[in-house]
Amino acid sequence: MSEDLIIPDSENKKVNLNRFTSVVFGCKTNQSESDSIIRELESAGFKLVDFKENPDFAIINTCTVTSISDKKARQMIRRIKLQNPEAIIITTGCFVDFNRHFLKEIGVDYVFSNGQKGEISNLIKKIYGYNLANSDTQPNLKLTGKHTREFIKIQDGCEQKCSYCIVPYVRKKYKSEPPLKIVSEINQSTENGLEEIVLTGIHIGKYGADFKNKDVYAANDIKLPVLDLSALIELIINKTNVKRIRLSSIEINEITDKLLNLIKNNQMIARHLHIPLQSGSDRILEYMKRPYNACFFFEKINKIKTVIPDITLTSDIIVGFPGESDEDFNDTLNAAQKIHFSKIHVFKYSPRKYTPAALMSDQVREDIKNERSLKLRKLAAKLREEYIVSNNEKILRVAVERINHAGNLVSGMAENYIKVYFPLNTNAEVIKTGQLVYVKTESVYLEGLYGNLVDI
Ligand code: SF4
After folding, report:
1. Which range of residues forms the domain containing residue 444?
2. Which of 66, 94, 158 to mutate to test the pocket of ligand 1 (most atoms within 8 A of CB)?
3. How far apart are CA 49 and CA 53, in angstroms?
4. Does 72 lie in the same domain as 161?
5. In this predicted model, what pLDDT tens digit does every residue of 50-59 receive, in sequence order?
6. For a tag on the chain, would you pick the N or C end, based on fewer CB atoms within 10 A?
């Protein structure tokens, strides 16, 4: 089922180019990496199709953060293999390193660890006879069209080694992207009409930690005596026209005064921080090897709320960590209530092979984990509802995500991470996906708010 396309090589000869599918699981970093592969392949003439449309090859970018992630990776690889027995199957991502045996057994053709992801598009080009020596080494900067906010990967790796987490073993050492590469990706993103970007990475608070010679990275007229996350954001503000910058997850101890003041003084930085709490119990935080205790967390949250009163705070929490007693769990419930997170991702602890927590003797029973997960989810839903209601009858700045012409309905994500809907009406010509618009909210709608466009 190949189509005739033109390969842009030196001879410009016409050959069959093939159709591929890309499936991605897990974090925004994975998504950003899959987007880069898609961009490179599309620029070489390959065509992206759904995995149900008989692709000629499939790239499956996996996650291994929980046992459910592993299950999803296994299921998807099996499914694609079964539905497309002739297709070349390429797997990558965090699942592959510790599951080589399974991948070999099931007949996956190529396995790329995270550090080798950048080589995937070249391998495919080679397989299809693309002349790499004459190929354009510039990355294709066209957008994938899959998102209305671009995920910009600024960093990879984590060296923190929380006792439950497998990520440091599969993502390895800190590796920051050069600032000017980031600036150029953002500029391309805004040229393509996306007005919000999300700075993403495995541990973004460590941006720049691995730069040895800062001058190497501070090119042209840009002087960066300290190259950290705040300096990078300042650079983005000065060197791009992006209208909204959102940060992905950041550790509480890496939120500096400089970063808080930057957010306070620049309306273009979304007033939203996703800060993993993981547990409200000092004992459990210590077992988890998290770099803070509950008191430090509360004090820092108070400071954040004082500096930026309209900040939105969301979090990740793990329930059922080994040794977690009822009292520890109650500390977590109380902490979530006290901070009033507007959204909480609740994870049930699942032992990850090779991590210290998997070997801890006092594992929590599955039924207790389920019970605690349900309780925390209920609290999270209540806090979320209260937060949504408290944002009714306000003017919110919304990044347009979907335009439903037939249903006369537009939806998008507000700065504070609430889904907002509004009617298309006469603005059909002017509204575009990726654009930032102002909406005056009028009522609670689905799991978000409904309102009307306003001119500011
Ligand atoms: S900071 Fe901890 S939880 Fe986050 S990726 Fe690193 S080790 Fe895992």
Report:
1. 395-454
2. 158
3. 6
4. no
5. 988 889 999 9
6. C
